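Re: export button greyed out
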Amino acid sequence: MNGIACKAFGIALAAIAAATFAVVPMQARPITHDEGVLPAGTELNDDQLDRPTELFYSEQNGGKRSYESVLGDMLFATPGIFGGMARKADLSCATCHQQGHNNPKLFIPGLSGRPGTFSTANGMFSPHSGGNSAPVTPPSLRGAVHLAPYAHDGRFATLRDFIHNAVVNEFGGSEPSKQVVDAIEAYIKDISFLPNDKLGADGKLTGKNSEDARRGEAIFRRPFRNDASMSCASCHHPDDFFVDHKVHDVGSGGSFKTPTLINSKSAGPYFHDGRFDSFRQVVDYFDRHYDLGLTGQERTDLVAYLDAVGDADEPITRNTVQAELDEIALFASVLDTAIPQQNGEIIGLTVETVGHEWRELGESFPPAKDPTVKGGLNERRRARNAVFDVVLTLRRIAMASEAGKFDEAARIYAGYRHDAAVAGQVLKAAEAYSLFNPAVREEHFRALDRLVDLADGSSTKR
Amino acid sequence: MSRLICCVGALAFALLATSANAQSMSEGAKAYKPFVVEHAGKALAGAKKLQAAVKAKDVKAAQDAWIESRRGWEAMETVTAELFPEFDEAVDTWPDAKQGYHAIEAALFAGKIDEVAKPTDRLVADIARFEKKVKGYRFTPQKLLDGTSKLAFEVGESKSKGGESPYAKTSHIDMQENVEGIEAAWKLVFAPTLEKRDAELAKTIHDKIEALEELVKVNDIKDLDQKKVHVGGEELAALMQQAAPKLKLKTTKLEDED
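Workaround output, generated via the alternate export path:
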């Protein structure tokens, strides 16, 4: 092939890849054998290319995130603050609250009632829990700063109590330091709702809505026919993030706090136990429970309203090598402060987390013995070697820190930053041959499915 | 278990004897070759037993033979990926339901012995070719250091979702053999020279290898202290890289890989 033909072929390939990027469905991939820490059938939903968008209050209007928020973000992603089985299983806060949102596909046999639910007090992760609690949905943490009290039953007045409970009681971690709790609190308080041009700051629909949604808004605020003191809006206050900060018994098996409706379109399944998958089911339930007497059209209008309120302009962000590198750089930046502070605990946790992120990223570049990837062997090899290099440099930082040699740690960290920048370029050069390319990903996972089928026929068909 | 102890004992004796006599890393590399050849022979012998058991439709014997063969292969992983990628791609390919150890593993440990005849024949042929090639191969200290440190790094990979051989549930054995291969390469090729040039670093690496060996002595991967193995593997690889300039070798760098 001559140069021009080669270039044309490259352009054609790029076009195919771009087209594929848009249409390939990304499905969950459960654990299909029982050699892992978690049982076969576990779905952590942690290898998706499409991820919930995450934005921060501090970055709105050109601001910058605080050290505490970044530190909390890193800690939120580390298994290092959990104990026992949870840590061994590589679980972190981010397992259930992906990108600070929820995890609708999360399923652990024995601990989940249905996808998107989880028994937060259970014998597997918290041996002193005295059995498994009823599975509940891990809530989205967007806008949590405005949504006290916390937990479905509202038993925690503050985020600090909520965080402490999750780390110690639910996931068997040791007593977290004040710095750890402060940082995670700062991070969670920084997670913002996603912009939604269908909803105004006053909680009223904007002009960018359908007639159905507008009629639904009126129904939402209309008193119930059997109790004029009540309406949907009497608990979901539109001018207060659609909450009233109280718990109510709506016939679902106890008293549970009013959930926000903002960005809720992607926050299902709904109700504390995730019993409903759609707004339609929720509306039908309330229509029955409160004998609202809604007509078919009114139910449709109410669903349209919830769709509008619950929407987001960009709910999903495609993951890329650059996005991963940005996250790694953000987490690693904790070392800018932790090393001069000679904070061994935070240095250790950062190295663990950042090293883990690098390794996960490296695994997206299939090795030579993966027969499903045809090209870019040198690029992939260089990418994997780059990861090898930076992870070992990080490890040397931890070793120096543990030996109390913080000057040496600082010197190695300076080298790490250079190596990480070089590695980033190498990884980006290999992206087309990585699992970030949906076509490559599809081939890789199809081959995995064939292997699973050979073993027991239980693969998730793609 | 007793066989493992016996093997480890024999290896320790061989290492001690060879270590004392090794004058240079080049000689060490020559001394390491019999280790590789021996394990290639074990991998091949196991594969042939597997082939016979498959023909006899004896599932249990076939599974045992698969494990035996795999033990041999995993002990050589210091060199297979780094120096013989064409064989690694054929024998240890992943994910591939058509050929290699894992295609056989997936079917065989599900009891589907009728589905493994073809990949088993191919495995025997591939390992036989590998054994022949390795017998005529000349190892260099640089490539052995690269392969050994990379394998130490791999041993430290997260196993929270299972290891390399999840269907046979023998990933812990893979790791034990990996560490045995690391130990053999380090002690035969590099330790004698490093002891002369930086005795403290040599001792640190020696201790790390011993510690890693202890950590992977489990009967089930679920019993593994994953955090310690992870840290231990990374520290060992980092120390080996740190030792490279003292051994007058290069650290594994990106630019070496073109």
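Residues 29 and 432 of chain A are 22 Å apart (CA to CA). The button fix ships in the next patch.
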